[in-house]
UniProtKB/TrEMBL annotation:
<dbReference type="InterPro" id="IPR029058">
    <property type="entry name" value="AB_hydrolase_fold"/>
</dbReference>
<dbReference type="InterPro" id="IPR050471">
    <property type="entry name" value="AB_hydrolase"/>
</dbReference>
<protein>
    <recommendedName>
        <fullName>Non-heme chloroperoxidase</fullName>
    </recommendedName>
</protein>
Amino acid sequence: MVKSANNPGGTPIEVFDGYRTALAANRAQFYLDVASGPFYGFNRPGAKVSEGLIRNWWRQGMMGGAKAHYDCIKVFSETDLSDDLKRIDVPVLVMHSEDDQVVPFGDSAPLAVKLLKQGSLKIYKGLPHGMFASHPEIINPDILAFLKA
């Protein structure tokens, strides 16, 4: 995800440094802030906020170790999975929203699906990064259809 020579359209490292700083300063607040905003798209005009989703994401975050969470930011942002994706030889469904505020669409899903031998890309409009939890009525039927196919 991070901007680099191999990924010129990526997210600047300063964004991930900001995540690390916020996590180290107040992990509990970090997990509330991310879930209340970009993760579920609750910062979008007209969004229907679900306190249950926010609190559940917070609960999951607080169950893990602070050091592991801190290190995870580096792993998810800086690990190049290109070679791994090229080795996968089974059908893979890549699901991504064009409005994902956490993982920018253009620098992720279309690039990943090109590396997969049997990749299928399902694009959603207006859904958040946490669309599996916030919009199961849309996501689950698409997963079931892929599995049945």
